[in-house]
Amino acid sequence: MKNPNAKESDVITQSDWRLQGQDWLREELLRYERYAPVRQGSEHDHCEFCWIPFRTRELPGTAREGYVTQDRRWICDTCYDDFKLMFEWVLET
Ligand SMILES: [Zn+2]
User: Fold this and answer.
1) Which pTM does this prediction carry?
2) Angle in degrees, CA 56, 59, 61, rounded to 5
3) Which of 60, 61, 89, 92 is the most exposed place for a label (fewest CB within 10 A)?
4) Domain assignment present for 75
5) Which residues neighbour ligand 1 (ion) by CB within 5 Å?
6) Regarding predicted confidence, which is higher, 3 or 24?
7) Cα 41 to middle of ligand 1, angstroms
8) 4 inside domain
């Protein structure tokens, strides 16, 4: 029996277009950080899910801070919120 109060659009399913089998990110330890490229002048990181680019400057259509794994993979705010339950991420405090 479906909950009639649940809005269909709020439910993230396995068929979400951003899901491309990122199973390696399951239960990752994440830290919220201001974006910093690994090397100066090489800003080519993007969100592991929606591919929004991370930049050190505020630009339209980019992210300036987000959640980063131990091996420097980035997840943007939106995707973190959408997938945190599915992936059971642990947030470093
Ligand atoms: Zn994203």
Assistant:
1) 0.83
2) 115
3) 60
4) yes
5) 47, 49-50, 76, 79
6) 24
7) 22
8) no
